Structures are given as C-alpha cells and as structure tokens.
Amino acid sequence: MNNTDLQQHSLAAGTFGFSAANIEDLGATEYTLVTIVVDESGSVDAFKKEMQNSIKQIVESCKFSPRSSYLLLRLVAFSDDLREIHGFKELGDCELTDYNNCLQPGGCTSLFKTSKNAIDATASYGEQLVDDDYDVNAVVFIITDGDDNASDRITSKSVKNSLTKIVRDEKIESILSVLIGVGMSSYQEIQKYLENFKDDAGLSQFVPIENANAKSLAKLADFVSKSISSQSNALGSGGCSQPLTF
C-alpha cells in the first residue's frame, strides 16, 4: 500500500515505529485516533477473506458516520512480527480497494509486541497533535485467534505500562482498548488466556466471538464501527465512551 504521503515516526528503545499524516495537512480541530490490529498468523488463513471483508465493512461504515471527518485510522497486521498496512490517515484517504488481499497469513503470533506498538504509536502521535492544539482521544482494537508465542521479552505487563503512561501523561483525553478473540468456541483455553491478558494488561474490554465465519465477522465489523463512533462522540466529555455489548 502506498504510504508516500505519510511521515515516518520512530518510537523509544528502537522498536518498530509508525507512519502518520503530516499534522500541517490536517483539516479538523479534533481527532479520534483509531488503530485496528489484526492477527495474520497461519491459523487465520481459513477465514482470511471474511476478515478482509470485515475490515472493508468497518471503513465503509465509518465513512457514513457524522464523525467521519474527525477520524484518523491506522491498520496493523501481525504474525512473527508486526506489519503496518497503513499508518494514521484521514478516513477520506482510505479507499476500500486498498484492503484487497491486505492480509498475508503465515507464521506465529506476536500479540504482546504488536499491542504495545499500537498503544505506543497512539500515545506518540496523539501527544504531537495535542501539542499542536488538537483535542484527541483514541480507540485501539486488537483482533486475534490465538495466544502470544513470538514477542520475545515483551509481556502483558509491558502493554500495561504503555497504557498507564498515557493516563499519567494527561495529554490524550482518553483511550478505549478492546481485545477481540475470534473462533473461541473451538479454543476455550485460548479464551481464558485472552481474558487473563485483558486483565493483566489493563485493557478496557474483552469480546469473545464464538465463530470465525462471514456472519460473525460481519457482526464484528458492526460492533467495531459503532464503538469507533461512540468513542469519537465522547471526545470533549473528559472520559471514554461506555463499552458496547457485542
């Protein structure tokens, strides 16, 4: 995907950075930073098409939101390592055809490492926006069907430390973090693992989805797009939107 109009940013400790729209080119006065993190490990291959359609549905639904002009979207995929499909850019610059064959299933699951990057990138770009007098809040969705087995020394505690720093720094108004487990009906032990990750990392919400088929992933897209709209509408209230029921 062509990211030539996005600026590259590095993060502390030499970790994978991120890209984002040039702040000088933005047209609104406030933004909700939206990050969607999607598992593309080998086990996702069985429902790759359905997941890609779900991503498209999320983007399309958000385009019809009254808050569409106030959204900056970043899409990240992960397997052995993380891969930025595109950095933070205005929703109007996101074309549905950009997401054709955007997932490349294979490899293991760097769940913790990618979750930390998603939060750290949100914090870094959000703080830059706030310093330029933008009002900012954020929402992060982490979608996976498995447990972490490729994050090296990054742990759930590392993710919690990143979330805690956002609260402590008091720049971004609020951040909603949603962990979504797909195909949980076949992997009850994975559901428990992800519930523990949600608690250990201090994430806002865990949403288990029993199946990974067209119907359930279409419902997922509806849930995500409504959650984005709700969090964006909460900007200026001083807190997060209330978590929605799947």
**Category from helices, strands and their pairing:** alpha/beta
* Side-by-side strand order of the widest sheet: 5-4-3-6-7-8
Q: Assign the CATH superfamily.
A: von Willebrand factor, type A domain
How much strand? 15-25%
Mean pLDDT: 94
Number of domains: 1
Set down the secondary structure blueprint.
Layout: E1 6-9, E2 18-21, E3 30-39, H1 48-63, E4 71-78, E5 82-90, H2 111-131, E6 135-144, H3 156-169, E7 175-182, H4 188-201, E8 205-209, H5 214-233
Parallel strand pairs: 3-4, 3-6, 6-7, 7-8
Antiparallel strand pairs: 1-2, 4-5
How would you characterize this protein structure?
This protein is an alpha/beta fold and 246 residues long. The protein has a single domain (30-233), classed as Rossmann fold (3-Layer(aba) Sandwich). The protein has helices spanning 48-63, 111-131, 156-169, 188-201, 214-233, and strands spanning 6-9, 18-21, 30-39, 71-78, 82-90, 135-144, 175-182, 205-209. The strands form 2 sheets. It has a 6-stranded mixed beta sheet with strand order 5-4-3-6-7-8, sandwiched between helices. It has a two-stranded antiparallel sheet with strand order 1-2. The longest helix is centred in the middle third of the chain and has 21 residues, at 111-131. The two termini are 31 Å apart.
Key attributes of the depicted protein:
Rossmann fold, two-stranded antiparallel ribbon, alpha/beta, 246 residues
Please provide a brief summary of the model.
With 246 residues, this protein is an alpha/beta fold. The protein has helices at residues 48-63, 111-131, 156-169, 188-201, 214-233; strands at residues 6-9, 18-21, 30-39, 71-78, 82-90, 135-144, 175-182, 205-209.
